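Researcher: Quick test of sequence recovery. Tokens follow.
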């Protein structure tokens, strides 16, 4: 059984650790969190060594994997853990776009696995819909609505919905428009986002805080209309083909964290699905954050490695007058 260290403790972590030990053969050996109160709870729940200096834990505790469950400093934690050879398991709804992009870059640069844990996306209904869209182009949405309700903060929920959109649509959106009820996305209980695509397709996301976890997806495609509703432990899928009747199916869900833990095994053995999706998801999340902050339409930048130039040798002996600008174009 391999060892895993934990960055960030909250009420979900015990269930995650139980699933990882039972289904992914990963045993927790240390917990890090910058705040003392979560560390007290972690110590009481696990009896493990706890570190308020997270980087010290990552540098001193040998581990084959890291669970990243905190946003502040996430990019640096991902880089240090990956540099020490630890696979990255990140809780997707906690990370914003810049942190997700940093984690994806660190995993790629250091050759470690990246698993983005989003249990809501593994419900039977969501899995059926993304699989249908991937295998039959006629069921890919032209217009769709995704609604997420949970007791977690609305900013966390909307990240899950955007990740689902990235799997449903064949291309990334060109721009994003967003609004938060009350104006502050960090404290808002309701967030609405519209994704606009070059093809003319539209996808609307609504995330709200509530006590009855629900994921609902409704939309239109060339093949017909689809409706998926996932609640705790069950999903309903309804397909209405054009020129035909409505077909409705009830599906049962497994434990969401157990499903994710079993998926981690495949990721650590070479399944790069999450690593492939992460850059596009990060680009969409970054644009969404800009749209929510400014109230304006934000453009989604194409994901990909950023070019950089570095002086390898030589330099200037003294300061010289400014003479203009240099533009370098490479093919």
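Model:
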């Amino acid at each position: 059984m391999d060892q895993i260290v934990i960055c960030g403790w909250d009420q979900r972590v015990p269930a995650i650790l139980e699933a990882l030990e039972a289904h992914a053969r990963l045993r927790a050996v240390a917990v890090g969190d910058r705040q003392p109160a979560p560390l007290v709870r972690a110590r009481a729940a696990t009896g493990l060594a706890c570190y308020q200096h997270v980087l010290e834990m990552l540098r001193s505790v040998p581990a084959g994997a890291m669970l990243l469950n905190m946003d502040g400093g996430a990019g640096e934690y991902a880089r240090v853990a990956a540099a020490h050879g630890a696979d990255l398991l990140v809780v997707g709804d906690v990370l914003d776009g810049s942190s997700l992009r940093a984690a994806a870059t660190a995993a790629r640069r250091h050759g470690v696995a990246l698993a983005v844990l989003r249990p809501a996306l593994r419900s039977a209904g969501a899995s059926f819909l993304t699989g249908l869209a991937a295998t039959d182009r006629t069921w890919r949405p032209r217009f769709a609505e995704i609604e997420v309700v949970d007791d977690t903060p609305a900013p966390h929920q909307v990240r899950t919905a955007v990740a689902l959109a990235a799997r449903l649509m064949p291309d990334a959106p060109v721009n994003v428009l967003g609004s938060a009820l009350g104006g502050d996305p960090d404290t808002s209980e309701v967030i609405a986002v519209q994704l606009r695509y070059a093809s003319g397709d539209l996808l609307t996301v609504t995330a709200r805080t509530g006590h009855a976890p629900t994921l609902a997806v409704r939309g239109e495609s060339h093949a017909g209309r689809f409706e998926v509703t996932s609640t705790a432990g069950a999903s309903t899928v309804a397909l209405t083909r054009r020129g035909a009747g409505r077909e409705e199916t009830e599906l049962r869900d497994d434990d969401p964290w157990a499903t994710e833990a079993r998926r981690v095994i495949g990721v650590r053995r070479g399944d790069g699905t999450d690593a492939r999706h992460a850059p596009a998801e990060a680009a969409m999340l970054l644009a969404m954050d800009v749209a929510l902050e400014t109230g304006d339409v934000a453009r989604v930048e194409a994901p990909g490695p950023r070019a950089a130039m570095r002086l390898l040798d030589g330099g200037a002996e003294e300061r010289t007058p400014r003479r203009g600008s240099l533009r370098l174009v490479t093919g």
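The domain at 120-259+287-299 is CATH 3.30.360.10 (Dihydrodipicolinate Reductase; domain 2).
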